[in-house]
Fold each of these.
Amino acid sequence: MEQIINLLINGISTGMLIFLLAAGLTLIFGLMDVLNFAHGGFFAWGAYCGVWFYSVTGSFMLSIVFAMAVGLILGAFTEKVIIKPVYGNHIMQILITLGLMLVLTEMLKVFWGPNQLSSTAPEYLSGSWQIGNVIIIKYRAFIIFVGLLVFGIVQFILKKTRIGLIVRAGVMNKEMVQALGINIKRVFMYVFMVGSAMAALGGAMLGPYTGSIYAEMGLEFAILAFIVVVIGGMGSFTGSLFAALLVGLNQSFLAYYFSELSLAANMLLMLVVLIFRPQGLFSVRG
Amino acid sequence: MMKTLLKVDSIETYIGHYHILHDISFEVHQSEVVVLLGRNGAGKTTTLRSIMGLNPPSSGAITFKDQNIHGLPTYKIANLGIGYVPEDQGIFNYLTVEENMRVAMKKQDAAHEERLEWVLGLFPDLKKFWKKEGGHLSGGQKQMLSIARAYVNENELLLIDEPSKGLAPIIVEKVMESILEMKKTTTIVLVEQNFMMASRIGDRFYIIDDGKIAFSGSMKQLNEDDQLKKKYLGIA
Amino acid sequence: MKIKNISNWSILLVGVLLCFVPFVTNETGLLIMMTNIFIFAIFAMSYDLLLGFTGIVSFGHAMFFGLGAYSTAIFMKRVEPTMEWFFISVLVGIVLSLIVSIIVGVLTLRLKSHFYAMLTLAVASLFLVVAEKWRHLTVGNDGFTFRVPDVLKDRPTFYIICLVLMIGIFFLLKRFINSPLGRVLMAIRENENRVESLGFVPLYYKVTATVVAGVTASLAGSLFTVVLRYINTSVFTMDITLNALLMTIIGGVGTLIGPMIGAGLIEFAQEWITELADVHPIFERWIIFFGILYILAVIFFPTGIVGTVNKWIAKAKSKRIEKLTPKDEKMAG
């Protein structure tokens, strides 16, 4: 029983990290019809910048904020320089963002070397609580908390603010939003930046979770994020949370019982969704 | 009184490689209703889209209130005072009627609220379904919503694309009445295939055939010319 | 896209010239590198078939390469390193690639390009994971060595074999592209909806393109392992797919010659830059240069080297015609 709770918490926290990565991706795709293959690169940069800033300043919270700032900047740069020139041409977008991913990953190795970097959680987040026979690792609870917080904030913005309304409308029908006099291109920029910052946040939080980070983690997590976006539905924010938790739990339980199967199981899930409900479980595309 | 509000001057528009509009020119004067008629695929929708900047013309000029608008981004054109009701209504399906309207309203102040109330007076059904999701509305209600949304911003020019399409005659009546009411305070370019509706609302007409202007004149003329009607509109 | 006769002859000429290389030099290093260039040229051409001619972006092309590679390696190791078994191993790789490409293709090609790209990425990484875990068959990341038939052991001989295969496959793919089937593929690249409304079922054609590309890639993979007589899971990695991508884009997408040139360029550069790495460590991250070059290419030179050269030639020709045509003729034109 304790084991199951453990796996559950494990799965949910992994799911939260994937959610942070996938949520940005799904909103960006839903709104802008852009699939950013460099999204995983923001994740990796968030992780490295977080670790670096933490080692320099000793403040974990600040390092997370720093990582998000890096995400915002990378997002702004990418949208303006990389995506804009090829806007509308799907094939070019895919190719060029992959190129960016390559460069981002290699630049990490230039700055921090090709080896793994170790990453530890701060004192107040290390260790665990014991409730009866169940051991709850503090850091995982922290991840779940942050994940829910981010979900809550973004959901609030989407449902209760004007810009959120515009984003939701834009996901359904970009042209109409423009015809109503709204400069949707500027909104694109904001969404892209926020999405990238979320990815960086996810990366920064991952470090202490797994204990070490490496340049290729961007691509590996990006694949999981893609699977989540497909299962959850392109453009559905709630869908990405649900699907991320599903994938996280899937990973957690299967990794424990049959470690070889975890990626395969998630892929199978994605293939099943693609065959029977290709728009995802929670589709919102108008 | 005959101030020219919109002038389209020899525009050519392409969609990809396809040359859709050839040398289209026409004028719209303040307070009138100009109807664009023609068969399916003639280029009527593309003309409206060209004006809105959604399919910008590759050559030629479009002026609105003496200002060049061709080449401007769509949102800027819309903000100059042009409202657009597309052929598929462009309703945000997962947003409520209220949210659909609010997207169109730039500011949420008292003056805008007043205007909203007044517009809803023209389309009382919308108030009834205020919290209903756009996708769940009936065809006629969607059309009303789309028109109301374009009208709530005090636009001086409305481009309306086939509002009667797919609607039952009794609903078409309702839509016509709303448009006639709006005609009192705004100028309208109407694309229609429903000749009955066009002839009752329109002041002047242009017939577009194969991407070119084939004929133009006053609605009265067209009503009396059966040959013309048969040739270009297939009406016996 | 017409590839004129003059280029056909020049390819043959270059091919013949290259045949002399092993007689002129004894440097095995050079021979190995050139052999690799030929093998990667085959791989890149197969990729160009998808990207340049059909408009399909695949991020999983390495899986076919890896299937061919492992098929040959395992047969050579487990059975006997003879030419008969070599052919069988290549065939097995081809059949496996055929099956995989059909399954993946039918399931996913009906979706938008983004989906397909993501999916192929995911499926390829699945192959990688399987290869790493199934140590019993593949010895995972450590890999294993094996012997090859004596005929293939001789470097100059294998060099000629790969060269001939490369030229042969180039002409075969050219014929394929210029066939009615190939023309439909190019039409799909331009406007899939239009093709559908003309009565074709794009899915069948896209799957066919994937199969042809996959099978060719598998052959390249089989040849690849013979060079080093060693294999490990690196043949399934994203790096391999990226190589094909870089070679195709930088060389010139949609030209078939482009990928060959791209393969040569990138292999040479890889060698040269890794040598420079001894001088200064920044060169170890040579891939950044290519990444940036690649991004610039996509934005500014989307047709790659060959495409840009073609444009210059076309421009020069039209300028010449302008000069020769008197003004009156142009007016009457």
Note: Chain B touches chain C at residues 16 (CB under 8 Å).
Amino acid sequence: MHELSLVQGIVDSVQETAREKRGRVTSFKIEVGELSQFDIRLIRKLLADITTGTQLEGAKVLVEREKCRVRCLGCGSQWDFRQLAGALSNEEKEMVHFLPELISSCSKCPSCSKSYFEIEAGRSVRVAEVTLDV
Amino acid sequence: MSESDSVPDFRQGMIKRRLSDVRHVLLVLSGKGGVGKSVVSATLAAQLAASGFKVGLLDADIYGPSSALLFGTGTLPEEGKGGLTPPVSRGVKIMSVDLFASGRPLPLTGYGARQVLVELLALTHWGELDCLVADMPPATGDIMQVLTSLGGAQPSGLVVSMPDRLSTAVAHRVLELLRSEKVPTIGVLENMHRPGPGQVRGIRGPARLAREFGVPFLGALPFDSGVTNAVEQADVGALLKTEFAEKLRRATLPYMKTLRTD
């Protein structure tokens, strides 16, 4: 349930952006990285609950899943989380849920079996865009 | 007028808010590995907790974490609405990547290690702390950059060096960087001191280093086989009874005094 603190952090950050730019948030977009395995419905619900009664109430909120793309630093091949997820134990999935970079602690490149990866997209939850009326 | 923009990493705000309840952050640093930073960090954290302070120990050595091993804890942090609550051992709240990785390899790039640290800082619910001790990785890379520019807390540095020329020379870089990053240094600590020829004449390297930078030389901690035994047993109680620990306690008394008065 640490999703709640992350979503609270997102809402605080969006409000801070609005304050800094002296604007009103009309919409914002959240991308939920596949690697974190967050339940996107839960993120939507938490966002709705937390923004109720705030300046963000009424703003259009878009929450989208961002596909995970990992690149091997050894051979350069790319793959996605679904290619790896099946081989992970529940303990490993939980580890990656909290700290997405630890995917390299429990997976190997499907092409060359090396361990150093770069997460190019879809690591965790992030604010992709905020639109303000200024 | 409508303006569309991406926003800064929201975790920075989370870190700032979390650290606003932390009175002091102490970075335990060195120029090279193997000088005893982790043992100094763990011992100091346990001593502060035993003296009644609220203490956290952040294992910032993301590539080679050992704080959880030193305390003999492998408990996963508790997940709750406020984030991740660290396990507590001997009164010290401990957060380490190894509580998640459980001894697995950590093949991380500099960017990856930085992401892990930022995530840990953003998620960890320390609560109110008098002091957060950060066991730093050796040298002056990404992790040092993150922890010397924390929003919400002004860190201080404690530089650990062995008496030899190599250790002292690389610790010089750390002190230079602390100075340029405007991070106050509480002092230089010599570790694994063994009296012998070559060390009895003149002023030793770490003391000279402290003098060069105008920071306190906190003293010399002995090479102590009791430390090795305590670490082997993951027995922090035994560690606290060593001559090493007693000398560390005396060396850091001025810092402890600062914690009481600030």
Note: The first strand of chain A starts at residue 24 and ends at 33.
